[in-house]
Amino acid sequence: MIIVTIARDYPHQALWSILAVVNSRQEKRQNKGKSIINRLRATTKNSSGSSTARELLNPAVKLVSVFINFCNTTPPRNRATCDLTRDLNFDMSSVPCKLAMPVRQMLDISLPATPSEVKHHSPFQENVYIYGRFYFILVTID
Q1: pLDDT per residue as tens digits for the range 93-107
Q2: Residue 100 forms beta bridges with which residues?
Q3: pLDDT tens for residues 7-19?
Q4: Digit-coded pLDDT (tens) for 11-67
Q5: What are all long-range contacts of 99-104, with beta carbons under 8 Å and residues at least 24 apart?
Q6: Hey, how many other C-beta atoms are within 10 angstroms of the C-beta on 14?
Q7: What region holds the Serine/threonine-protein kinase ATR-like HEAT repeats domain (predicted)?
Q8: Running DSSP on this structure, what letter comes out for residue 97?
Q9: Which helix (H) or strand (E) holds 29?
Q10: How far apart are CA 63 and CA 92, in angstroms?
């Protein structure tokens, strides 16, 4: 399956799309996403060359889950400030995570200019920005 191969080789970027499918509200899409994750787990378990995907999978699943929970949390009313962990239930144990930040610069794919460059071409930017810490503890609410 080509999706599993891409996720195995480029997990920092590919897992965002797969985990979006896993967390879909449509059961059929969820099942497809879970199938891809299960195949990825099986593939990385049997392969020594895909340790990055294997090491990134569980933290990525956790980080996406934390983000979804965070987005569905209602901020407290009648307060000018709130704390990410105490008031908004943000689980700081989800960071650091080596999943690439989902910004265009990190997820854009480049193609080789000539056929001779295919062998040594890297389709994604070499420097990947990841989640290390969250410093913004204070959120102002109008």
Answers
A1: 888 887 776 666 666
A2: 130
A3: 888 888 888 889 9
A4: 888 888 899 999 999 999 999 999 999 999 888 776 655 678 888 899 999 989 988
A5: 99/12, 99/15, 99/16, 99/56, 99/59, 99/60, 99/63, 99/130, 99/131, 100/12, 100/13, 100/16, 100/128, 100/129, 100/130, 101/129, 101/130, 101/131, 102/16, 103/129
A6: 23
A7: 2-47
A8: E
A9: helix 27-45
A10: 9
